[in-house]
Amino acid sequence: MASCNPEGFALDSLTSSLTSSTLHSNAAVQSTTSAAASELSNLGSNLATTMAQTLNPNLVNINVKPIMRDGNDMRLDPGFNNEHQAHAASHASMQSTAMQSTAMQQQLQQQQIGEQMGIAEAWSSSPQPLQQQQQTPQTHSSLPSPSIQTPSPYLQSQALLMQNAVQMQTLTSLKTGHNERKKQLEKEHLQFQQKQAIKAQNLDEIEEAWLDTQLSGVSMEELSKAWLQAEAEIETEVSSFGSEPPRTYNYTTSLPPPSPSIDYFKLGVQNFTSGNLKTAIQNFESSLKISPTSETWSYLARCHAESDDDSLAIVCYENGVGEDCYDLDMLLGLSVCYVNEGDDVRAKRSLTAWVKNNPEYNSIPSSDIEKMLESCLKIKSTPKLLRALGVVYNQSRKWSAAISCLKESADLEPSHEVYNKLGATLANSGDSASALKYYNKAIEIKPRYARCWLNLGISHSNLRNYEDAVRCYLQVISLNEDMKYVWGYLRVALTCLERWELLEKAGRQDLEGFRADFDFI
């Protein structure tokens, strides 16, 4: 597949430029190497000449007569043969020349190594002028460190080669990334074409099926029969709701064995009404161990729901539906918990069962749950129906319709639960300021309503009323110490409030340490 890619042309141009630059650098290296070889050759010739003159017997008389000075110091007598002095001077010159040659070779090698190391390090970081990157080469301790002002042509060519190598590596990386991106785009394009082909095939099949239906002479009565059959399948699904085995509820292990002489259900209702949810949960659990009933399961589910634990509330509601699948309040409460947990499928199933099991609305034909509830509303408007419709509107994010239904339900039958739902709907729609009013109404009815205190604190945080938010979070923890995650909300609010001295107490989860600064029950 051909494509116009200006980036590809730029990469080819850069490749040609780097190849030409590399050829020039190689030529410079060869030239510099030849010059160095010539210089070493001349040095070797001079050394050979000096050695030949030194070893000539006609030039030196080796009959040396030493003299003693100070009894132990050997010195040459200046009155003896001058040829001997010439021999000694020539021998010393030969040794000096040889040492200088060796030193120059070592110095040149170390200089090259040092400069190459300096250049390599410089090119690995950023392209700066070579003179700024030059480092003093390491030399033998017996030789002076040479002072280099400008690099030799050989080192310049080496630096250029290194630069070209880095650029070639970058070019290779760019080409690789470009090729990978090209393959990815081609793959995505192929997938898109495949999806379009599948859609076109499905449309062709639908159109073909419709034409076959028309050609086969299917009457409206037959189509109506097929529609009724589909409704019957929905009825079967609704009637089977609650027939699934409920999930097992894990009882509190620390409870003592229940006594048959104690009315745990009555105690549970009293504690639930007063807001002592932890004690109420223990009462209802004890009552279930003696005699499990749908009403007890329903109260236990409401305790967990008000403790902001919808998962446990669902287990209790499901067990209650297993005891009595016609309990309308339990079906409605279960649908609300499903919505809170994001289980839209089960929420619609439970609401459909609520409609079909309600004697006032069971004549409504099965259809979309929202349309079913709206049809029920035309027959008779009740607070519970309005709450159910408000839950469905919440599920579909129709905030205005949900707020209208819940407000009407609260006017007909005020309760702490409906006020909390109304406040949560307003907050979810982005109107946290209006939500405060209905949260406070719910708390007026039930001051120990932990879930509503939590919602109130979140709305205060959204409005940046952090001090009020801290007080609400502390109230939640005081009412239900098992809601450990609220400590995280509290730390965030304290940080926004810049109450650094209280963060340590929050880290220790020291609730009593906050009473000196905040008022809560």
From TrEMBL:
It is found in: Cytoplasm; Peroxisome. PROSITE patterns: TPR (PS50005), TPR_REGION (PS50293). Gene3D superfamilies: Tetratricopeptide repeat domain (1.25.40.10). TPR repeats lie at residues 261-294, 416-449, 450-483. Residues 73-152 are annotated as: Disordered. Keywords: Coiled coil, Cytoplasm, Peroxisome, Repeat, TPR repeat. Residues 168-195 form a coiled coil. One of its GO terms (cellular component) is cytosol. This is Peroxin-5. It comes from Triparma strigata. The lineage of its organism: Eukaryota, Sar, Stramenopiles, Ochrophyta, Bolidophyceae.
